[in-house]
Amino acid sequence: MRRFLLLAVLLCASCFAQDGAKSANDPILGAMLAELQRSKAKLKLADVDAPYYIEYRISDVDEFKVETVFGELRLQNRNHGRLLRVVVRVGNYKQDSYIGMGEGMTNVAVVDDDLAALRNELWLNTDRAYKMASEALTQKQAALKQLTVEIPVDDFAKAPAVESVQALARLEVTPQDWVETLRAASALYLRDALLQDFEASADFSATNRYLVNTEGTIVRDGKALYNVHVSGNTQAADGMRLNRGWSSVSAAAGELPGRAKILEQTDKVIAGLKELREAPMADEDYRGPVLFAPAAAENVIDGLVSNNIVGRKPQLGAPARTTGAWSAEYKSRVLPDFFSVKDDPTLTSFQGRSLIGSYAVDDDGVKAQVVSVVEKGKLVNFLMGRAPIRDFPESNGHGRAALGQSPEPAPGTLRVESSEPLPPAELKKKLIELAKQHDQKYGYFVESLGGDLSPQVLRRVWVSDGHEELVRGGLFGELDTRSLRSDIVAAGDDLKVSNRAESIPNTIINPSILFDELQVKRVEASKEKLPEYPAPPLGGSGP
Amino acid sequence: MLAPAPVSAASSALLAAKDSASQPLLGVMEKELGRAKTELGKLDPAPYFLSYSVSDHELVNVAASQGALLNSTVLHVRYGAVHTRIGTDKLDNTHDENRGSGIESSLLPLGDDRDALSRVLWKLTFEGYRKAQRAYLNVKTQTAVRAKEDDTSPDFSEETPQTSVSAPAAPLAIDVKGWEEQARRYSAILKKYPEVEESYVNFSAQQSNLYLVSSEGSRVVTPSTMLRLVIYASTHAEDGMDLMRVETFQATTAERLPGEAEVAAKIEKMAVDIQRLKAAPVTEPATVPVLLSGRAAAVFFHEVLGHRLEGHRQRDEKEGQTFTKKVGQPVLPEFLSVADDPTQKELNGVELAGYYAFDDEGMPGSRVELIEHGTLKNFLMSRMPINHFAKSNGHGRAQAALMPTGRQGNLMVTSTHTVKDAEMRQQLLDEVKKQGKPYGLYFEDIQGGFTLTTRFTPQAFQILPVMVWKVHPDGKPDELVRGVDIVGTPIAALNRILVTGDTEQVFNGICGAESGSVPVSASAPSMLFSEIEVQKRGHQRMRPPLLPPPGFDKDDAKAVGQ
């Protein structure tokens, strides 16, 4: 028996050595595989099981950051760093140590491609992760004795090994040009003396990922992310704080907006803030149709859909299938029957734009898959990583991790579409018709939302002649998953790509959405005070 | 060549115009402060004090481990802070737990653009005013509701405005590539030692220009530069006890950091110490005579005495207040004196990290005799008065964007009862024999809360003896022990000091406390304590790594084929 095990180890060792040879010119993968193999072969505490699974992930991040405010540089930073994450699992696929302190170690790693130094870090972190995993498993088994688990679910899904060594990403950037452009953009605040804050910033990064595990997975790939952002705020005469911004997020340097485009968009932000400042307040009470432009609908989907379609293992011993508002809605209708939602990380571009939610292999080392989540309005699937939930024993390639964090199920590129799409003009017509039916003089058109799904740009569309009028201070009364299911009556054919530079980069592709009835109230929060004294006069000018 | 000489108030208006031309930032700060003073002065309540402080930092950080670079960054940041006080100096918005309401801060633009700078300052000012106003309401209510405090001192001291505008420091000229190479070389030394687990080498440099203007009329610009080299190595004993060694070097220029040969020798010694510590027996409970090296004594005094002499602690009823009511009374043996002197740049050829010309409230740093011939005389005072101490003595210190409190600068312990350093060991042995003890202890190195920054920071007040030797009276060689913990409060030991050595040793470090991290030094001669009670310290039971380091695994070379 012992001889057989040894043979197995040696066989596997040679298989790794081979894999290692394939990526022999990558010292990082080389170091990872060498230490993985050594740990797999030898790491064992007396009286404790050896690990049944070990995983290493190194994220190499080259980041360039510029922040400007009122035409001046506030921060400029180029930073190259590496984060190492080590997961050691003790036990078996059915029940293992992956809980609490057993969820792995994250540490900074050396940025030089120094095989010996990297292995040294892997060695120490693997050792610690193994010991903590052993303790975690003991604690978990003790805790489980106190609980009754009715339908046991495996702790870790099996997955085929993936080998995919791709080209590395490189940051393409000319720092000084960006500093100049962003300074020029944020300097446009001079056009409006009532702006209280005005900033333009850029955050560019190239992240190269190296992932190996004892199941034979070897992954190397790179992603770039280019994010340019302009934002400002002002106050209306009555003190209401008003925010507007613009951003451009892409995965390709070639899609970065040029200076002229950035200045043009910045101008629009400034004009928009002025327009908002002068806009009348929303009426106190409104109940009627609301049309969400794609940019606003994106926030609704993010806030009310994205989080509810992931299969996240509930707390130890909890009976629920998953967490989130739709944990009990499997096979039930959650959206109107002409709606479908699918997540397609394999899509690399759409309408000629790069998608930052795209990936080939997820952070669990599982191949990305297209997953149809909502069909004809019905919730038919969850996005899964390798932590199974009831009825979903396998990953569908959606285990995604923020930098240095544990993978969790998350969307990549979420596509929300209607089987009966209407052109935007038709939707506007429909908005007016519905407003008439509700005996309203106007319907609402939301162009963009801020945080908490509160409208940033909200317009009345008048029934009388269809003209649009900007208002401020509107707030939705009951925009929730119930209204998604019951109150959506149509959607557009105007699919729009939104790249979202969040801790787990993702993309949402969605159309306009028309609700036939939503409550829009006037904000009642006590109005903010205007500044105690006027802003410094402009033109104290320059240094 | 100490603090820049203050200028008389009469000529300051003239100078103001001149400085503002050469230092646009200072000009903007003054102009915007003037506007704030006038405009907020019309309100009810109006602030009775306003100040702007800006800290402009140029930072370099280079770290390496095991011969490879971990990180190398160069950064320029500028923090702006507005201090607002509403009420009266007797009772204002910063009273008691509302202290944080006295400051509002954010990053400032880096250039000299007046419009941009003044706009950010303006916003900070009205936001700071609102915060102070809300807090002031709380304070008034709390004062009405709560019982009278023991210490009814005002909240803010009256001081003479200061004017001292030095030329800002020239930009840092660090050879970053050179540091990277050096950090790789230094950290590679530890690769030879399989006992060393985590280790790193960290070079850092900080060039700061601090600008301060206040509604009282102070205008202060002070430059400062600090370079630091920290080397860290750790291991675990077989029983799981974590053991570490740290070396730090501090200087004002790269040239004044120690040379490669000296640093390399120190690192080799650290590694040998780690090997020895790992193999050393655990200490047993004992009450024995103890000799502290000068550096160990310096750390000891900083942690157990210095922190307790910080003025604000005498007022905070949640504090232990060991010394609050002991002014004029003996607290140390009569032959010991303790001062804090931030105006001193060097001691025995070593640059002192706690040097500054002005503190973070714009008060000139000054030497304070804290304990004279054993008798407590004074505290480390910021502008927060305490009973019997109404004024600042130039020790109001803080990290950028935090509220200053009384802090140490250069803490200096001196003695009039000394023997030659070379005789201290014999003194220990004599004491051991006199008491009929089997051995005495020599504390070569104590780790305190102020030696490390970032990840591994132990708490203030905490002391951790790391290199402790058993010294036998019968001529047996000294024996290293590990896991030494001082029983009870270490402060009780201060009165059992018998005699000291004759030269002060310096420990430079970064001290962390409520008002953030500030550079400090402590210096003291070696000291003999008649007795200190020690025990084994509690520790985690994380065993040493199961496998040898990758480079030391004999099978590994074959298996990997490299």
Kindly describe this structure.
The complex is a heterodimer of chains A (about 550) and B (about 550). With about 550 residues, chain A is of the alpha+beta class. Chain A has a domain of about 250 residues. In chain A, the strands form 5 sheets. In chain A, strands 1, 2, 3, 4, 5, 6 and 7 form a 7-stranded mixed β-sheet that branches. In chain A, strands 8, 17, 18, 19, 20, 21 and 24 form a 7-stranded mixed β-sheet that branches. A 6-stranded mixed β-sheet of chain A has the order 13-12-9-16-23-22, with helices on one face. In chain A, helix 1 packs antiparallel against helix 2, helix 2 crosses helix 3 and helix 4 runs parallel beside helix 5. By secondary structure, chain B is of the alpha+beta class. In chain B, the strands form 5 sheets. In chain B, strands 1, 2, 3, 4, 5, 6 and 7 form a 7-stranded mixed β-sheet that branches. In chain B, strands 8, 17, 18, 19, 20, 21 and 24 form a 7-stranded mixed β-sheet that branches. In chain B, strand 6 and strand 7 form a beta hairpin. In chain B, helix 1 crosses helix 2 and helix 2 crosses helix 3. Chain B starts with 8 loop residues before the first helix and ends with a helix. The chains are: A alpha+beta (about 550), B alpha+beta (about 550).
Key features?
heterodimer, A: 543 residues, alpha+beta, seven-stranded mixed β-sheet, 8 helices, 24 strands, B: alpha+beta, disordered N terminus
Short description:
With 543 residues, chain A is of the alpha+beta class.
Number of E-type strands of chain A: 24
- Top-tier CATH class of the largest domain in chain B: Alpha Beta
User: Helicity of chain A, in percent?
Assistant: 10-25%
Cα separation of the termini of chain B: 60 Å
The Cα radius of gyration of chain B reads 26 Å
Q: Average the pLDDT over all residues of chain A and give the rounded result.
A: 93
Just name the CATH architecture of the largest domain in chain B. Answer: 2-Layer Sandwich
The helix content of chain B, as a percent range, equals 10-25%
Number of domains of chain B: 2
Beta-strand share of residues of chain B:
25-35%
